[in-house]
Design brief:
The structure holds 3 protein chains of 3 kinds. By secondary structure, chain A is mainly α. Chain A is about 65% helix and about 5% strand. Chain A starts with a strand and ends with a strand. Chain B has a domain at about 15-100 and about 165-250: 3-Layer(aba) Sandwich (Rossmann fold).
Chain lengths: ~350, ~270, ~290
């Protein structure tokens, strides 16, 4: 028989919590420089490259939105093509009523946001897997509905009016700048959202939904907001698509391939990080260009790589980079700094130093 | 740190179930810190402790539902730390989990049948379970969700018994049940033991545990604070071990359990 | 009278849709997996059947004897490897992996076969015909057969789940995975059995569809997955016979839509689906609303 009574003495430790490990002002300045350089592209490069960049902008925007949904809010949507299509068709309809497509883009995006509300109401009660298919059904239903109207092209589609008088080079440049604006705006919006209150709520939901609810977080509202924002973003991308293609066809804008592209780009780039979708989009574009002549191969390769990454390298390419270099361009997490154990290296002039800073995000 | 009682090891028998320096984490939280115990055949070994002391974690790790960070679990002398839970069950370590965990959409009899799916050879059959729980046979086609807490507990025990275990793990039998029901269930224990079973149980109700156990071990915040036979420990020692008070302080306070000083407890 | 014909067609098509859906429902009920590649597996079954028929010249009607077991084994294997690996990593990853699988299958079929539509045909048997009730109602034998098969499969599933040892194990694992482990059941094996059943039934459904209509690489998602899902939701999650009811409602809605406007057939079905989602999200057979 034995009795043991010991209670470990609590050590006095000071902890500090910061938003980022290195000075984010540097990355902010860096980002600004990148944007400025990108803005100058139409003056520097050929229009072929500019068109390619527009494609990249579309994919980056879509990927960021899908990442917001799946990586942060835990909502897997395989029906985001609904908003890509709606965005394109809103621009088309507005152009038919004499609103320039460039002016129509923001209106179309907001229109998608508005449309997202009743859609959310319909499907939000379904659990994750069934929620996913429901988004797909919605997208298909919307496409079938739109195809009924020959005035907007019916089943075959029609070209985008309102841009015929444009100088071709200027058109490409303007499309590029609008694309850049959409992309930058999307990334900034996602960053601001996640850094603020919404980000906290979403992380709380991700960790433990019941606890989040009971501590007052408006779970349903947060999710709906994310869904609406994603709709706006995807709608803007869809509008951009219409402008860049100059033609709107239901099969092309409503195809589930858009979701495949978004999802794979995010998974490969890194789910749950803001930088991931950018990297993933770049990978997608590269793959698509390289395998272009091999028909459906690029989707097969993309799909297989995405499955492999999802299973074995869940944090994607950015996760691998992040682990090595420990940088976050868009810091939305928190760093915990703990003081060194006393006496190991003697007294320090600065009170606190990162020992094993643990990141929580 | 606890020292195993020397009398038990003296006769040279190997413990049926042994846990050596088991450390278990829940994420970053350390639930068990180098806990050891030995259970010999035929014993009723009770683990007591406050909420969060790590008792259920210990049992669940023994059952295989948790991976330990460090340490070993030996069954009949063989290391089975890496064996999957279902293999442990078919090997003779069967747990009655905390909260009963019956199969809600199945009837009473179906629950028992599931328990018997991979049963070892032995004296326990569904019919025998019906014998010791007289009411069960009449209600065997009822959905378990319609039973009372005590009845569900009986079915859960029955489900474990029909697998013919060698070691029966009982996790918090008294949870959520009225004291009268709890006593009735524990009164079944001798019948269960008579078939050669060994019981390792976790119990929050200390007096109940002291009444049925041949050995007790107290956990506090993941480590062992007391270990021995009920007849050898005083109420004050248990109290001190349970709450983590220093022994002197405990002896100065009132005994928590009136009438349960060593001399008055039936051995 | 054309309406009566349409409604009867719709009811019988409901059997086909129920056949689409029961595998999806089973996998979700047992392991909480929504297999986004579910429809594509039916299409694989149809293509395999096409291959088998071409090579062995057996009648299309009997191709299932070879194809269904193959697909069932494939289901067990895929579940124990890929899907289990995804399950171990969470719901999100599982969805992503099955979605990836769906895209890979469709793109693969497009790449290695072609985008054309095929049909399995029904060969020279009695079921090419239809019988008439009165002068206006024609019921194709094939559709009647498919409906009968669907009912038989559902009955078989019901009896399997409620009476057999494996069925009991499946239900136990679906109720409480951990408790099942404590009773000595390897849930991964049980999951495999459930997947085998799901793949087998969906392959049967694919063959049925291939005989009744035409299939192409995208049929898996366009038609089968979405219709299966709609049938499940309309009928009520978690109810096997509810799936039949849901399929029937979907089929009837589609046929009525086709009567109004041929091009609106599929849309009509989805509109009814959305109505059920809006007004009675728990489905038609569930007794009370689930939160």
């Amino acid at each position: 028989m034995s009795v043991v009574t010991d209670t470990p003495a609590r050590s006095e430790e000071n902890f500090r919590v910061t938003r980022s490990r290195r000075n984010v002002a540097w990355t902010g300045a860096g980002a600004l420089i990148v944007v400025v350089v990108l803005a100058l592209f139409p003056y520097i490069v050929y229009s072929g490259t500019t068109s390619l960049m527009v494609q990249a902008f579309i994919v980056i925007t879509l990927a960021s939105m899908w990442n917001l949904l799946a990586g942060y809010a835990g909502l897997v949507s395989v029906g985001q093509q609904a908003f890509v299509g709606l965005g394109a068709y809103f621009v088309l309809i507005l152009a038919q009523h004499s609103l320039s497509p460039f002016g129509g883009l923001p209106v179309a995006a907001i229109g998608c946001g508005v449309a997202a509300v009743p859609m959310w109401w319909l499907i939000s009660r379904l659990r994750s897997g069934y929620f996913a298919i429901a988004t797909w059904v919605l997208a298909t239903a919307i496409m079938l509905f739109i195809e009924r109207f020959p005035s907007i092209g019916g089943g075959t589609g029609m070209s985008l009016p309102g841009l015929s008088g444009y100088d071709p080079t200027l058109l490409v440049a303007d499309t590029y700048w609008i694309g850049l604006a959409v992309t930058v705006l999307s990334l900034v919006t996602v960053y601001v959202m996640l850094r603020g209150r919404i980000g906290l709520v979403l992380t709380a939901i991700r960790d433990d939904e019941v606890a989040a609810r009971s501590s007052g977080a408006r779970v349903g509202l947060a999710r709906m907001l994310v869904y609406v924002v994603a709709a706006v973003g995807c709608g803007a991308a869809g509008a951009l698509l219409a402008i860049s293609q100059l033609i709107v066809q239901p099969g092309a804008v409503f195809t589930v391939q858009w979701t495949a592209i978004m999802a794979f780009a995010v998974i490969i780039g890194g789910l749950g990080t803001i930088e991931g979708p950018i990297i993933g989009a770049i990978v997608y574009i590269i793959l698509q260009r390289t395998l272009q002549s091999y028909d459906a191969w690029y989707l097969i390769v993309l799909g297989l790589v995405a499955i492999a990454v999802a299973l074995f390298a869940r944090r994607g390419l950015w996760g691998l980079i992040d682990d090595r270099l420990n940088i976050r361009l868009f810091p939305v997490g928190y760093w915990l700094w703990t003081p060194e154990s006393a006496g190991r290296r003697g007294p320090r002039k600065r009170g606190l130093r990162p020992r094993r800073a643990e990141r929580h995000s | 740190m606890s020292e195993p009682a020397t009398e038990r090891a003296d006769n040279g028998s190997t413990p049926l179930l042994e846990v050596r320096d088991l450390t278990v984490h829940h994420g970053q939280l350390r639930a068990l810190d180098r806990v050891s115990l030995r259970v010999f055949p035929g014993e009723v070994y009770a683990i007591i402790g406050a909420n969060g002391a790590g008792k259920s974690t210990l049992l669940r790790t023994i059952a295989g539902l948790h991976r330990p960070t460090d340490g070993a679990i030996l069954y009949d002398g063989k290391d089975m730390t890496k064996i999957r839970p279902e293999r442990r069950a078919t090997g003779g370590i069967v747990m009655v989990p905390e909260g009963r965990r019956l199969f809600g959409s199945l009837t009473v009899e179906e629950n028992l049948k599931v328990g018997a799916t991979y049963a070892r050879k032995g004296p326990w059959t569904i019919e025998r379970v019906y014998e010791i729980f007289a009411w069960m046979k009449d209600r065997r086609t009822q959905r378990t969700a319609q039973l009372s807490g005590g009845e569900q507990q009986a079915v859960a025990i029955g489900r474990a018994l029909v697998a013919n275990p060698r070691v029966l793990l009982l996790d918090e039998l008294s949870l959520g049940l009225a004291p009268v029901i709890v006593q009735r269930i524990y009164a079944m224990l001798p019948q269960i033991l008579s078939t050669g079973l060994t019981v390792l149980l976790v119990e929050q109700d200390v007096s109940q545990a002291l009444r049925v156990a041949s050995h007790i071990q107290c956990l506090l915040e993941g480590h062992t604070t007391l270990e021995g036979r009920p007849s050898e420990v005083t109420a004050e020692q248990v109290e001190a071990a349970y709450f983590g008070l220093s022994q002197a302080a405990a002896e100065g306070s009132e005994a928590l359990w009136h009438g349960s000083t060593p001399s008055s407890r039936a051995s | 009278m054309a309406w009566v014909n349409a409604i009867i067609q719709g009811i019988l098509t409901g059997g086909l849709y129920a056949l689409f859906a029961c595998g999806l429902s089973l996998m979700f009920g047992v392991m909480k997996v929504v297999n986004l590649a579910h429809g594509d597996l039916a299409v694989i079954g149809a293509y395999v059947a096409l291959g088998v028929i071409t090579v062995t010249h057996i009648p299309a009607l009997w191709s299932f004897v070879i194809v269904v077991p193959i697909m069932a084994v494939l289901g067990y294997a895929l579940q124990r490897t890929l899907i289990q690996a995804a399950l171990d990593r969470g719901v999100l990853i599982t969805l992503l992996v099955t979605f990836g699988l769906s895209v890979v299958i469709e793109s693969g079929l497009l790449q290695f076969i072609n985008a054309d539509s095929h049909s399995l045909g029904v060969g020279e048997s009695i079921i090419t015909g239809s019988f008439s009730i009165g002068s206006q109602i024609q019921i194709p034998y094939l559709l009647l057969l498919i409906f009968a098969v669907a009912v038989v499969v559902l009955l078989g599933l019901q009896y399997f789940l409620s009476l057999s040892r494996y069925g009991r194990m499946i239900r136990a694992v679906a109720d409480d995975q951990e408790a099942a482990q404590l009773s000595g059941i390897d849930y991964r094996h049980v999951f495999g059995i459930a997947a085998a059943i799901a793949f087998g039934t969906v392959a049967l459904a694919g063959i049925a569809y291939g005989m009744y209509s035409q299939f192409s690489p995208t049929t898996g998602t366009d038609t089968i997955l979405l219709f299966a899902f709609a049938a499940v939701v309309i009928g009520g999650l978690g109810s096997l016979w509810g799936t039949l009811l849901g399929g029937i409602v979907l089929g009837v809605a589609q046929q009525i839509g086709a009567q109004i406007n041929q091009a609106d057939q599929v849309l009509a079905g989805y509109i009814v689906f959305l109505l059920v989602l809006a007004l009675r999200p728990q489905g038609l057979t569930a007794r009370r609303a689930q939160s």
